[in-house]
Amino acid sequence: MTAFFNTGLSQQQFLDEYWQKKPLLIRQAFVDFETPISPDELAGLAAEPEIESRLIEEQGETGAWQVTNGPLSEQDFAKLPETHWTMLVQDVDKHLPELQTLFDPLRFIPDWRRDDLMISFAPEHGTVGPHTDGYDVFLLQALGERCWQIGAQAQYDIELIAGLELQIMADFEADQTWVLSPGDLLYLPPHFAHYGVALNDCMTFSFGFRAPSQVELLDGVVNTLLEHNLAKIRYGDPDLKVSDQSSEIDVGSIKRLKQLLHQTIDNNEEILTEVLGRFVTETKQSLVELAAEQVDDKPTIEQVNTLFEQGEQLQRNIYSRVAWTNNNDSPQLFVAGEAYCVDSANSVYLPLLAENTQLNNDDWQQLKQQQQLVDLVCHLIADGVWFWSE
Fold first, then answer.
1. 371-382 vs 301-309: helix axis angle to the nearest 10?
2. Phi, psi at residue 180, to the nearest 5°?
3. Is 0.70 topped by the overall pTM?
4. Sign of the torsion formed by the C-alpha atoms of 322, 325, 11 and 155
5. Domains, the chain, ranges and CATH?
């Protein structure tokens, strides 16, 4: 079985014993690690208007825990104190694709669960305060040292400091304290309170894994049912009893409602796959414009054929998320929040379209035997999901 870093655990043992259960500190998970991006380069990304970034000052000009959203300017940096601030940049793995390899040791976790690589820089005492996250995160120390205080168990009902843009805990008690050095990796399950403070100039790489909420999924179910013109059965009460209180909604009514909603899910189970696939591949709002930069006219099969024969390759858009499924014998490809149904006979090609980041002529020779797949590839080129490498 494949080892999980240098922990003595296999990947499956990590999933069984730690994943979404309890924190794990891994000393020197990345041996002799050197950050592939400098603080100045990170600040350069934060200055780009299309890149999501934030500057957090523990005591800013406008009060405690001041947040300045990017793009950040030279003036923003010039007025900073020497300590007690943090710069954060989202989706660095997409803006700098060469950093994608840092996810390689975590590929045993489904890619569709992966959110982004966020990188933070902080001088001494820099922090974003004690808080919890609703998702799994691996925190890699990339530069300097950071002291992490961790809560004893998951917390769902927490009191926050009122009036702040940040969700900072009003009351935090640490159960464990660790100082991380470059190459050390800390795994935190959802809702475990944590409080990281830079001990010196410090960079932390945060590998986040997305997790849709119940409300988000229910919203997706309702919208998808509406799109497919399904779930039209109305509330019914054939077992209705005479009531002296004509305005009362009794317990029996709520039970019937609950049963109706359960039936809606059970009778439309195939919808759930589509809901999840579309949700986890939906493009972040902050990345929509970047993803659209490759949008093109829809090519003909002859044009695609010619380019492949000339040695050109298709490159998948780094900003487009992709997943696939063959659940319930209903193969589907999910791309950027859209679902594409595929014939059962073509399901064997879904991994080629979803797992690969490049398509060459050999791949095309397989795909072009099926008209449905040809049309799909041409459509995805037009949408900018696939584009010709320079």
1. 80
2. -100, 140
3. yes
4. positive
5. 11-209 (2.60.120.650), 214-281 (3.40.366.30), 285-388 (3.40.366.30)
